[in-house]
């Protein structure tokens, strides 16, 4: 292993349980967990709340100015009550707001913008540089940490992923249909995999895990074995 405390990169398709696996690993090994999707979602919420989105176009000039003026400050804070790391935008807890379909439907177009990626990737590298970290996203193993100690590429059948996400949203009281969720999942996969800057793709040295028919516990056990085999 190159680092004393490893960097573990988990990439993969939308709603395939990357964060569940990443959190499980972080808890098991007492590493930090960074949800990079939440960072792109936070920028998307900024775009929505500041009306930088009109007629399918994002006002990139205003968004860039906002970054330059330090008006888009993203952070995470551990909540001991929920035992979760929650996302903050300019000091406000936005964890719930960023999980709904409004943000989900706009996040991939926001994540395509090169300066947004540049800003967030710098932040991610800074957050992970000491190691002892599990980071999930789309370009962690290919771009953010190409020398990560372990790279996992996670996927599952699109309908199974949509069904899981649909249940999660319903359980959170959101008014959505299965078809809407399936459309969102497949469209995000398409935009994320075909964009020019750092598209979603499996790194050559990533371990591919398909969890369509694998339980959360079984998957975690497999991943723990992979981490343990690093030492
Ligand atoms: O992991 P998630 O579904 O919360 O991510 C939301 C979106 O953010 C995803 O559709 C694409 C984008 N994203 C990205 O482009 N790069 C990352 N490292 C993480 C997420």
Written description of the protein model:
By secondary structure, the chain is of the alpha/beta class. It has a single domain (7-228), classed as P-loop containing nucleotide triphosphate hydrolases (Rossmann fold, 3-Layer(aba) Sandwich), CATH 3.40.50.300. The chain is 48% helix and 19% strand. The protein has 9 helices and 10 strands. The chain has helices at residues 18-29, 36-49, 60-68, 101-111, 114-128, 140-144, 158-171, 178-194, 216-228; strands at residues 7-12, 32-35, 53-54, 57-58, 74-79, 84-89, 92-93, 133-137, 150-155, 207-210. The strands form 3 sheets. It has a 5-stranded parallel sheet with strand order 2-8-1-9-10, sandwiched between helices. The protein has a 3-stranded antiparallel sheet with strand order 5-6-7. A two-stranded antiparallel ribbon has the order 3-4. Helix 2 crosses helix 4. The longest helix has 17 residues, at 178-194. The protein is globular, with a radius of gyration of 17 Å. The model has no long low-confidence stretch (mean pLDDT 94). The structure holds 2'-deoxycytidine-5'-monophosphate (DC). 2'-deoxycytidine-5'-monophosphate is lined by residues 14, 36-37, 40-41, 107-108, 111, 137-140, 188, 192.
């Amino acid at each position: 292993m190159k680092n004393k405390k490893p960097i573990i990169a988990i990439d993969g398709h939308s709603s395939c349980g990357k964060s569940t696996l990443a959190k499980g690993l972080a808890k098991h090994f007492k590493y930090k967990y960074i949800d990079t999707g939440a960072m792109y979602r936070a920028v998307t919420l900024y775009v929505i709340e500041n009306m930088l989105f009109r007629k399918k176009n994002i006002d990139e000039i205003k968004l860039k100015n906002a970054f330059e003026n330090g008006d888009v400050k993203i952070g995470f804070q551990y909540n001991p009550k929920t035992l979760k790391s929650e996302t903050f935008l300019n000091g406000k807890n936005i964890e719930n707001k960023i999980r709904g379909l409004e943000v989900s439907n706009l996040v991939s177009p926001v994540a395509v913008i090169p300066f947004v990626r540049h800003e967030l990737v710098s932040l991610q590298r800074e957050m992970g540089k000491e190691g002892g970290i599990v980071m999930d996203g789309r370009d962690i193993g290919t771009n953010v940490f190409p020398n990560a100690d372990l790279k996992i590429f996670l996927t599952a059948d699109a309908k199974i992923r949509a069904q899981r996400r649909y249940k999660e949203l319903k359980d959170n009281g959101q008014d959505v249909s299965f078809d809407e969720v399936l459309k969102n999942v497949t469209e995000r996969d398409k935009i994320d995999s075909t964009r020019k800057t750092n598209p979603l793709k499996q790194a050559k040295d990533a371990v591919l895990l398909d969890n369509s028919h694998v339980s959360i516990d079984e998957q975690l056990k497999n991943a723990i074995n992979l981490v343990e085999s690093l030492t």
